[in-house]
Design goal:
It contains two helices and two strands. With about 55 residues, it is an alpha+beta fold. Strands 1-2 form a two-stranded antiparallel sheet.
Length: about 55
């Protein structure tokens, strides 16, 4: 999903991967800590976060 250039919410990605939202949140935190992804707040609703894969 991310490699296709899509903007994906954590809920969409957890559903796509077939894992719980809480498990996904833990995994996202680890990926952010390792600098593999960046999350930004969705400007449209101020609550959703979107994850972006680092390509370098």
């Amino acid at each position: 999903m991310l490699r296709q250039g899509n903007i994906c919410s954590p809920s969409e990605l957890s559903e796509y991967l077939g894992i719980s939202r809480s498990k996904f949140s833990k995994e996202v935190k680890e990926l952010k800590d390792l600098n593999y992804i960046t999350q930004i707040i969705d400007e449209r609703d101020g609550r959703s976060l979107h994850a972006y894969e680092h390509t370098e």
